Amino acid sequence: MSVLVYINSNGEKLAKSAFEVVTYAKKIGEVTVVTNGKADDSKLAQLGKYGASKILVDRSFDGIDEQQIMRMVATAAEKVGANTIIFSDDLIGKAVAPRLSVKMNAGLITGANGIPKDDGTVPVSVFSGKAFGFVKVNTDKKIIALLPNSIQPEETGSEATIEEFAGNAGDTRVKVKETKLPDGDIPLPEAELVVSGGRGLKGPENWALITDLAEVLGAATACSRPVSDSDWRPHHEHVGQTGVAIAPNLYIAAGISGAIQHLAGVNRSKVIVVINTDAEAPFFKAADYGVVGDAFEVLPRLTEAVKKF
Ligand code: FAD
């Protein structure tokens, strides 16, 4: 079976999700990757180790315009005769996959978090991660969007051939004037460890409590929505239903109540640690470990303890 995978190769290095989608596709069939932009061949060649046999690169555009990417992926799917197309269920995947689904008359499965069964049924996360579902589409062509951090990348392949290709991406009506990357070395959606703060931190002047702990742990930082709405922290750190959805190995939440809209973005975390003065805070119900205590006392002690390791 021919499987096509779209990856965004515009960053300095390939995102972890690129290796995840290739690993996932390899479990389904013969993998071709399609991408655009200026990524050098040595960067793309790494995907061979994870199971890609061919990589198609359209160098005619390097943006992330969803219409252009959609047209390019449709052209690639036609070229390789792919009947399954895989995206990462990230911001680009969410924008492109539904458009492609309409263009190709292909059934779309979003929120996939497991390998398809032999009968084509795909495990998905539903109700903001509160339950599992199993979805099957009956169209010949299928599109699957895989949730980031749902599977571990596996090195199962060897080498991929890299081929320049014309994806007929067409024009874009969007003009990019400036690209500003978020501060910090660890992109939040890919972070294995995350330290997050809420309104309980009282104000931006206290954020060293969060950033100090994040630094000693090598973690990314995040926040609740009111924190970013009040400009205490940048918007790209806001996690939840209306923010970034994350699934780190460890999520430490300090001074966050655990409203359902916040949990929707973090409840796929493997281990959740909650620090809150209120023993009745709803977040404790979702926590693996809880500290009923003042974040202003607990966080500095935690930071000092981690420093000793
Ligand atoms: P609060 O609810 O004010 O909670 C602060 C917590 O800090 C309390 O539990 C308190 O006990 C504790 N605390 C106080 N002092 C201390 C201390 N010294 N030490 C330790 N703990 C302390 N929210 C999101 O986060 N993400 C979303 O994506 C999101 N989307 C939304 C979408 C919609 C449509 C709506 C209506 C709301 C959304 N919200 C979202 C808002 C959400 O409902 C909550 O209002 C928000 O998550 C609360 O943020 P918080 O926990 O930081 O603040």
From TrEMBL:
Binds 1 FAD per dimer. GO terms for biological process: fatty acid beta-oxidation using acyl-CoA dehydrogenase. Gene3D superfamilies: HUPs, TPP-binding domain. FAD binds at R199, S224, R225, G255, I256, S257, G258, A259, I260, Q261, H262, N276. Its cofactor is FAD. Residues 3-178 form the Electron transfer flavoprotein alpha/beta-subunit N-terminal domain. It comes from the Bacteria. GO terms for molecular function: electron transfer activity; flavin adenine dinucleotide binding. The keyword Electron transport applies. Keywords: Electron transport, FAD, Flavoprotein, Transport. InterPro entries: DHS-like_NAD/FAD-binding_dom, ETF_a/b_N, ETF_a/FixB, ETF_asu_C, Rossmann-like_a/b/a_fold. Belongs to the ETF alpha-subunit/FixB family. This is Electron transfer flavoprotein subunit alpha/FixB family protein. It comes from Brumimicrobium glaciale. The lineage of its organism: Bacteria, Pseudomonadati, Bacteroidota, Flavobacteriia, Flavobacteriales.
